[in-house]
Amino acid sequence: ISKFCLNVDNKKMLKLFKTLQYKLTSSSQLKFASNAFVSESFNIMDNIPELRDEVFSALKDYVYNVLQYDVAFKNINSWVTKVSPKGFSQNHHHKNSWLSGVYYPVGDKGFKIKFHSPVPSFFALKPKKVVHENEEEWVYRVEDNMLLIFPSYLNHEICINNSKKDRYSSGFNIFPTGKLGSGDNSLILT
């Protein structure tokens, strides 16, 4: 999980997010959510170049400098989620994508997202000290203009909105493009 602070007008983004049309969250993966809504459009970033450009700048940094991959990629979908006070989502991951991310225009101490380790724990070991490497869950408190990028297979959930205001975020998924692999395991994605 990598965290970035975007250089966008977060008040403008929040105002724009508030004008979108929403529907109750439902999908094959998200069987239960309370007071959670998703934008009717799943191409949000196509209409917000300021946000798209900043997100893709962070994605390039993550893919090329953090992960050290030399691969092209493209956005396959993007949306906005609105979670009312006391709302939440269940634990889920994003299928049919490589990397996912979530941008928060405005933070609050009552807004959190939790990620779950993909590595099962077979032994009930108690560490002498809890450190990032031995935790099984990671909770991030949402900050202004925060962007989190993570592998799409990583399970995560929207924690209960413990504020008195709606929590807005924009999620997205990306996919690698071009020639991947070599020999009998090569694949060309367009």
In words, what does this structure look like?
The protein has helices spanning 10-19, 49-66, and strands at 2-5, 22-24, 33-39, 72-89, 99-104, 112-116, 137-141, 146-151, 156-158, 167-180, 187-189. The mean pLDDT is 91. It starts with a strand and ends with a strand. By secondary structure, the chain is mainly beta. Helices cover 15% and strands 39% of the residues. The chain contains two helices and eleven strands, in the order E-H-E-E-H-E-E-E-E-E-E-E-E. Strands 1, 2, 3, 4, 5, 8, 10 and 11 form an eight-stranded antiparallel beta sheet that branches. A three-stranded antiparallel beta sheet has the order 7-6-9, with no helix packed on it. A hairpin with an 8-residue loop joins strand 2 (22-24) and strand 3 (33-39). The chain is globular.
Key attributes of the depicted protein:
190 residues, mainly beta, 8-stranded antiparallel β-sheet, 3-stranded antiparallel β-sheet, 2 helices
Please summarize what this structure is:
The chain has 190 residues and is mainly beta. The protein contains two helices and eleven strands.
Draw up the topology in text.
Blueprint: E1 2-5, H1 10-19, E2 22-24, E3 33-39, H2 49-66, E4 72-89, E5 99-104, E6 112-116, E7 137-141, E8 146-151, E9 156-158, E10 167-180, E11 187-189
Antiparallel strand pairs: 1-8, 2-3, 3-4, 4-10, 5-8, 5-10, 6-7, 6-9, 10-11
Largest sheet: 8 strands, antiparallel
Proportion of residues in helical segments: 10-25%
Task: Specify the number of helices.
Answer: 2
Q: What is the overall silhouette?
A: globular
